[in-house]
């Protein structure tokens, strides 16, 4: 019976990982795919590699928080772990059906919290620490991006000049016996540099996703001790001991790979083409800030909702760019006003120099733009908030009223 439950648990964990692959590939590589810098197949391949690296190197800290700290080990048994994974996977699957990358961290924490509340064993101190960071992280993203937008963004935009293309930047040359990838005709060196930066930041995002999200797929199994069997793997002179934590990362990595190559195509389309026309230079800044915050918090065991952090980073970057119409002394004396405007990120084209701080008029800053598609954005926000609530309520009702779990 135990072996059957273990197989079922691994299958459910793989289902969760599959949906994580579908949800987070679009967030990491949507801008690169939307700009025709990277194909969907290439995005899936890079997602698979860098998600696994992030999960293996940084992910165990978050696994420990979700698998051991939120609820006692005696409560998170194999049976309850399977049920928690089911709610996580079902909620994420609902988001993926709509082509929206749901917040996997909030969904996982909500499912485990539902178990803890139903059984009266939730560690409120750990829960409080997670929620505090959920509040602080977007604030930090806003201010860091605001500083970058005011003092550094115009220079980055002038030097790097990453622009969107209507045609693919890279093509496969099959004229020789061995196919090779080369830049498309008419591509200049600046575009090549910009494209490499966009792809590199996408890989960094995938790494941070693995650091934070691997726990969402396997923490309940690791916390229940179901994967507690060690093996030694020898590669040349290197001997690696694979314990329950490492087995969990392997299971999650394989499942995410399958999701990245299949269901992620829908979220890549949403994040790459439908939701935003954010300038690629701005997207790179937002992705770098967001991935850094998520990776640092993952290292101390805090699961973070990446999408909310990234959204506040966009707002902060736009606000910082908009405040360049006034110097600090002007603002203190109240002689010039500034405003929060994401449209300020379109004040100059890629590669175009910006006026010095204080030399622009407020009327020169776009106050509105077509950066965001309102209907798509509203749908994403609604589903982002609905999915974790669905998982939490489902977990609470199940563990509170279904007697099979024995609580």
Number of self-contained structural domains: 1
Coarse morphology: globular
Number of strands: 4
Distance between the termini: 20 Å
Strand content: under 5%
Would you list the SSEs in sequence order as H and E?
Answer: HHHHHHEEHEEHHHHHH
Estimate the helix proportion, in percent: 55-70%
Structural class: mainly alpha
Low-confidence stretches: 233-240
User: What is the averaged pLDDT score?
Assistant: 77
Largest sheet strand order: 1-2
The whole-angstrom Rg is 23 Å
Q: Major sheet, described briefly?
A: 2 strands, antiparallel
Give a verbal description of the structure.
The two termini are 20 Å apart. The longest helix is centred in the middle third of the chain and has 37 residues, at 124-160. With 407 residues, this protein is mainly alpha-helical. The chain has one domain (2-405). It is globular, with a radius of gyration of 23 Å. The strands form 2 sheets. A two-stranded antiparallel ribbon has the order 1-2. Strands 3-4 form a two-stranded antiparallel sheet. Helix 2 (40-57) packs antiparallel against helix 8 (244-261), helix 4 (78-97) runs antiparallel to helix 13 (374-401) and helix 7 packs across helix 8 (244-261). The chain has 13 helices and 4 strands.
């Amino acid at each position: 019976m135990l072996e059957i439950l273990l197989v079922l648990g691994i299958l459910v964990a793989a289902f969760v990982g599959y949906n994580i692959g579908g949800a987070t590939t679009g967030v990491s590589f949507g801008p690169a795919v939307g700009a025709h810098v990277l194909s969907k197949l290439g995005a899936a391949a890079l997602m698979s590699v860098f998600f696994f690296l992030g999960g293996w190197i940084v992910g165990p800290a978050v696994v420990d928080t979700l698998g051991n700290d939120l609820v006692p080990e005696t409560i998170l048994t194999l049976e309850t772990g399977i049920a928690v994974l089911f709610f996580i996977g079902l909620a994420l699957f609902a988001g993926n059906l709509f082509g929206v990358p749901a917040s996997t961290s909030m969904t996982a924490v909500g499912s485990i919290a539902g178990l803890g509340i139903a059984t009266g064993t939730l560690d409120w101190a750990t829960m409080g620490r997670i929620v505090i960071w959920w509040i602080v992280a977007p604030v930090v993203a806003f201010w860091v991006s605001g500083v970058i937008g005011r003092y550094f963004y115009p220079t980055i935009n002038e030097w790097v000049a990453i622009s969107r293309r209507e045609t693919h930047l890279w093509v496969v040359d099959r004229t020789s016996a061995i196919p090779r990838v080369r830049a498309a005709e008419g591509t200049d060196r600046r575009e090549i540099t910009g494209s490499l930066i966009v792809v590199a930041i996408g890989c960094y995002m995938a790494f941070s996703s693995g650091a934070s999200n691997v726990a969402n797929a396997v923490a309940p199994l690791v916390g229940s001790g179901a994967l507690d069997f060690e093996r030694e793997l020898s590669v040349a002179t290197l001997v690696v001991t694979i314990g329950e934590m490492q087995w969990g990362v392997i299971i999650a990595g394989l499942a995410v790979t399958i999701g990245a190559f299949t269901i992620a195509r829908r979220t890549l389309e949403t994040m790459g083409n439908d939701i935003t026309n954010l300038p690629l230079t701005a997207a790179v800044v937002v992705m770098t800030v967001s991935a850094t915050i998520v990776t640092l918090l993952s290292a101390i065991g805090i699961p973070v909702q990446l999408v909310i952090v990234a959204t506040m980073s966009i707002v902060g970057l736009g606000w910082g760019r908009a405040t360049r119409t006034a110097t600090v002394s002007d603002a203190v004396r109240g002689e010039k006003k500034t405003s929060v405007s994401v449209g300020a990120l379109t004040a100059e084209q890629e590669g175009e120099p910006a006026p010095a701080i204080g030399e622009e008029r407020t009327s020169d800053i776009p106050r509105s733009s077509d950066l965001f598609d309102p209907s798509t954005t509203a749908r994403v926000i609604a589903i982002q908030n609905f999915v974790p609530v669905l998982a939490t309520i489902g977990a609470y009702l199940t563990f509170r009223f279904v007697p099979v779990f024995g609580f």
